[in-house]
Amino acid sequence: MEPQPLEQIGWGSVLLVLSSACNGVLAWYMLRAARVHHSKALEGDARHLFTDVWTSAGVLIGLIAAAITGWHWLDPVVAILVALNILREGSSMLWESSQGLMDEALPPKQLQAVQRLLDERSAASGGAVRFDSLISRRAGSRNFVDVHMHVPTEWTLGRAAQLRTDVEAALMQIVPHLRAAIEILPLGQATVFETVASRAARHPEEDSEGI
Questions:
Q1: What's the topology of domain 108-210?
Q2: Distance of alpha carbon 52 from alpha carbon 22, whole angstroms
Q3: C-alpha–C-alpha distance, residues 114 and 136, integer Å
Q4: Predicted model pTM
Q5: Residue 183 gets which letter from DSSP?
Q6: Average confidence (pLDDT) over 19-36
Q7: How large is the average pLDDT for residues 125-154?
Q8: Angle between the N-to-C axes of helices 74-99 and 40-69, in degrees from 0 to 180, rounded to the nearest 10
Q9: 64, 50, 59: which is closest to 82 by C-alpha?
């Protein structure tokens, strides 16, 4: 290592501060948009810009410290620390992006809001309508909800379909980018899954013999 004297530190520092400020503002807006749209690509760009900001801050500190102390070896040392920070941010983003390839359930607050809406609709019907088997998932920026809606057997198909449409519209109002799928069932009828699960609970020995 043969450190060279640093020149034009003043002008270089001014340009560094200005460019870092621009990158910081742009990264902040991009990160907000990424969180709204659940976009890993936007989040990656935002964190990349934030890394540039921290890199510039580290370089600026190194330049000022070297100019004040005369220790020119501080500049390459700061460069090494900046490189390690870039590696840390890159590995973190790679891990989070790989996790985004897997479907996941809706966040607890949104799931609670969905359940609250379904309970309110059931209460408004006086218990005539019941919702169960709620399943949610998130894939990228899209949200999905599947639920069973049990209605009285004397209801017409048109009445049940209208209620389903109303509930789906209400769900899409409280959860952005939502696709709701509501299956209409007669009140008191169990689904195939529920029937199999109930039988397995009553006769566990039959399932163990079939394995």
A1: Alpha-Beta Plaits (3.30.70)
A2: 11
A3: 10
A4: 0.53
A5: E
A6: 82
A7: 88
A8: 170
A9: 59
